[in-house]
Amino acid sequence: MRRIRRGRSLPEVELTSLIDVLFMLIVFFVLTAVFSESALSVRLPGAVGDPVSGDSVTLTLDDAGRVFLGGERLSMDEAVERAVLSYRWGGKILVAADRDAPYGAVISLLEKLRNRGVESAGLLVEASEER
Q: Which of 20, 50, 95, 108 is surrounded by the fewest CB atoms within 10 Å?
């Protein structure tokens, strides 16, 4: 009697879990790239300062005196309100003012923060060597 030979079948690789992992990696890298970029570039004044650690919210003041929070342009009062909410939950408030920003706008922002109960707000500077 003659035996019928069947061809060996190739092992199958289950791709579903690999596709899920790949999708999650793509989502992670896209979100990381989006949130790590600063939406607004300001030229910070040069000074010597200490690095900031911990949770913080950054209020950005551009050279025209406009206020931004997280890349979103807001009125000064609205930006202060949102920053104060973060401050009350234990966060720090940082002010990144452009070196050409009107001095009065920076002082007004700091005064509004103080009037809302913020005891201290940090000023971001560009690192430079001590003079």
A: 50
Q: Which residues are CB-contacts of 87 (< 8 A; sequence separation ≥ 6)?
A: 57, 93, 117, 118
CA–CA separation, 67 and 93 (whole Å): 14
- Other beta carbons within 10 angstroms of residue 25's beta carbon come to 10
The CB density around residue 61, as the number of other CB atoms within 10 Å, is: 23
What domains are there in the chain, each with its CATH number? 46-127 (3.30.420.270)
pLDDT > 70? residue 104: yes
In this structure, are strands 67-69 and 122-123 parallel, antiparallel, or unpaired?
Answer: unpaired
Helix (H) or strand (E) holding 49: none
